[in-house]
Structure formats: C-alpha cells, structure tokens
Sequence to fold (93 residues):
Amino acid sequence: MNLAKTIGAHALGESVEEVSEEVLLDLCQQLHNWGQVLRGDDAQYLKPWENMRDRYLLSAIGGAIGGGMATSIPGLGGVSREQIEDLKKMDVK
Fold:
C-alpha cells in the first residue's frame, strides 16, 4: 500500500467532510430563517451565508491537515510504523 496515496485520500475525505458540515449548517440556518418568516416573527435572523468563502476554505484546509495527520501518525489513524518507514524510504522528486 502506498502510504502517500493513503494520506492524500484521508486528507481529501476529511476536507470534504468538514466543508459538507459547514454547508449543512448554512442550510439549517436558512431553514430556520424561512420558518421565522412564515411565522411572521420579527426576531433577529441568522446570517447563514456570511463569510461563506472564508469559512469553507478554512474548513477544507483544516480537514485536509487533520485527515493527513491522523493517518500519518501511528496509533491515530490506524497506520502502522512499517507503512511510515515505507514512506520515508520512497524517493520523492
């Protein structure tokens, strides 16, 4: 198994998961706002799409770092020490 591909796959997967959580949060807040409008409530509305680009980008970067680290550190992500040594032996150019 190529450890570099494994780390990349886990980083990508975690990145997608974190961004999807942000999208779900925004959708839930928007649904809440629509519910407030339908009830005729004049309460303060949530701002679900505010700073969307920054939040999604930070979630993606944080997820990629976290997913890659959890995979590359033995005991955190189920990667053995042998796989770590294989990665160190690879000739990366």
About this structure: The first helix runs from residue 3 to 39. Residues 15 and 60 are 4 Å apart (CA to CA). The mean pLDDT is 83.
